[in-house]
Design goal:
heterodimer, A: alpha/beta, seven-stranded mixed β-sheet, three-stranded antiparallel β-sheet, 7 helices, 12 strands, B: alpha/beta, six-stranded mixed β-sheet, four-stranded antiparallel β-sheet, 10 helices, about 40% helix, globular
Chain lengths: ~290, ~260
């Protein structure tokens, strides 16, 4: 009979992992700089997080504990399948709890639970170039980065204020890393931008289709762009989560019926579960 | 010699395309506040010369020296790309023949004028907008068009917007490549009038390339005439146009249509 298929730890072969690690080292050494790398095929379509998966594969070890979130949720299709993928090919323990994880792969969110030193967060990035929609030529955007010529990004913000009276970008809000490189924080809500600044965890970014890796090392300054008289304002929610009652967290709108009914609940399912549990325990203690 | 030193000093400058020269052996000096017209027929090398002076084309031979605001003399051919960009940001401007080349057509007029300021580190929206608005007024664009895209502007307005975008950072030297061609005659006259006012007001040095001798006559102090990639005559504009020495210049002057 056929032998069961075995995979190298983390699915990728060792040479590929070395190549990605070299790119990661360079990315960490030059915070916010996009390092090209030879993106490989992984068993998922490009645009589904292949960059994140490759970065995770390059840094994962069998003693890691992996958490994967998609829009903050641990139970969405993509999150579930990436988690089980690494449980199979890297034989790692997985978790949904942010505080237990050593490695978090994410799409579109930074967990509500603050990350700690020693943790690594891997972002899936669709478009790594913050200037891409303003300047389509790659040769030109590279030159702009090299010469630190970021007037163009401010033109975009200027146009928003002129048209809408405020900066209308609410996700993938451009940041300046370590006072030098303009960086796309991946499509996280601007609500999460302040969490990137001076974060004790290592933040790695992988764009598989675009073949770029970049990084923000622990405790690096990450400044969201703005004008003196129109500074960056993260999104705010003036109501608490309908399930757990947390306030000051990022909320998703969930449609409840056909009559326009909707509730706002935590997008971070791990946070929501734990906050509900803690709430229930408090009530029990009071009773 | 006393008096101010030249802003731009060109000696034996040439640029080669493949195995032939676009322009060659060009000597000229440009003093602060002076307007120099480069005239000649199509293919005479005038645009190539402008490209070489503005560092858009590399210098194959000869030297081009530029004196900065800090009174430092730079050999342009040896400057790094970032140093050239610095000059573009703060001391130079370039007005293209087609405004679409010099403007961002899908960014509002205010954004177009504000971009050089933002590139130079301006980070106050209110101030940027106030300066942009002031410049629109200066170039006779109604201030209520500040949020409109240049695609909705007429040719003359686009050209004036391009001029505003170039002058907003108070450059010392502006290159212009046929800024008035493609505009109808009355709009041309208005644009030239505006240019003359601005040049005078800000003491700009200008190198303007044109095939239109009337433009040279109206706006420039000195004129150089080019043919076949070489300068064949240069001098005060009035002298060159009223008393042309070179046979080619005589031909050029006599072929102006008399209205």
């Amino acid at each position: 009979m056929n032998e069961p298929i075995t995979y190298n730890t983390g699915y990728l072969d060792e040479q590929t992992k070395r190549m990605i690690r070299r790119a990661l080292l360079k990315a960490v050494a030059v915070p916010g700089f996009q390092v090209p790398f030879a993106s490989r095929e992984v068993p998922m379509p490009r645009g589904w997080g292949t960059g994140g998966v490759q970065v995770t594969a390059a840094v994962i070890g069998e003693d890691d504990v992996l958490k994967v979130i998609d829009q903050g949720a641990d139970d969405t299709t993509n999150a579930v399948s990436i988690r089980s993928f690494f449980a199979t090919v890297a034989r790692v323990r997985t978790t949904t709890r942010t505080d237990e994880a050593t490695l978090v792969q994410t799409r579109h969110r930074i967990p509500e639970t603050p990350l700690a030193a020693g943790q690594i967060i891997v972002y899936q990035v669709p478009v790594p170039e913050p200037l891409r929609f303003l300047e389509p030529r790659e040769t030109e955007t590279r030159r702009l980065h090299a010469l630190e010529d970021y007037g163009l990004m401010y033109v975009k913000l200027y146009e928003d204020i002129a048209r809408y009276g405020h900066i209308a970008k609410t996700y993938d809000y451009p940041v300046l890393v370590n006072g030098r490189y303009l960086m796309a924080p991946s499509p996280i809500p601007s609500f999460d931008n302040p969490k990137m600044h001076d974060n004790p965890a290592l933040q790695l970014f992988g764009a598989g289709r675009e073949k770029r890796i970049y990084a923000v090392p622990p405790h690096t300054s990450v400044e969201s762009l703005g004008f003196e008289d129109h500074p960056f304002e993260p999104q705010r929610f003036d109501r608490p989560c309908e399930i757990c009652g947390s306030s000051g967290v990022y909320l998703d709108e969930v449609i409840t019926d056909d009559a326009g009914g909707a509730v706002f609940v935590c997008s971070d399912t791990d946070h929501c579960e734990r906050a509900s549990l803690a709430g229930a325990e408090d009530e029990e203690a009071r009773a | 010699m006393s008096g101010p030193a030249p802003l731009l000093q060109v000696r034996g400058a040439g640029h080669r395309y493949g195995d032939r020269f676009g322009c060659r052996d060009v000597d000229l000096d440009l003093w602060p506040g002076e307007v120099l017209a480069v005239v000649g027929e199509s293919g005479s090398g005038k645009s190539t010369l402008l490209g070489v002076l503005a560092q858009r084309l590399d210098l194959t031979e000869g030297s081009v020296r530029y004196r900065t605001a800090e009174d430092e003399v730079l050999e342009l051919g040896e400057l790094s790309e970032s140093a050239v960009r610095r000059l573009w940001r703060s001391e130079w401007g370039f007005v293209h023949q087609d405004a679409a080349d010099g403007l961002r057509m899908h960014v509002s007029a205010g954004g177009n004028v504000g971009e050089p300021l933002m590139t130079n580190g301006w980070r106050n929206y209110g101030e940027i907008r106030a300066v942009a608005s002031e410049w629109l007024r200066r170039v006779e664009i109604p201030e209520d068009r500040i949020d409109d895209h240049p695609t909705t502007f007429s040719g003359g307005m686009r050209q004036r917007l391009q001029i505003a975008r170039n002058l907003v950072v108070s450059p010392r030297l502006v290159f212009m490549d046929e800024p008035t061609s493609g505009l109808d005659v009355s709009v041309q006259a208005r644009l030239l009038d505006l240019l003359r006012t601005l040049v005078h007001e800000f003491g700009l040095a200008v190198v303007i390339v044109t095939h239109d001798l009337a433009v040279a006559r109206l706006i420039s102090h000195r004129t150089v005439v080019m043919k076949g990639g070489r300068v064949i005559e240069s001098g005060l504009t009035d002298r060159v146009l009223d008393d042309p020495h070179a046979p080619y210049t005589q031909l050029l002057v006599s072929s102006i249509l008399q209205g």
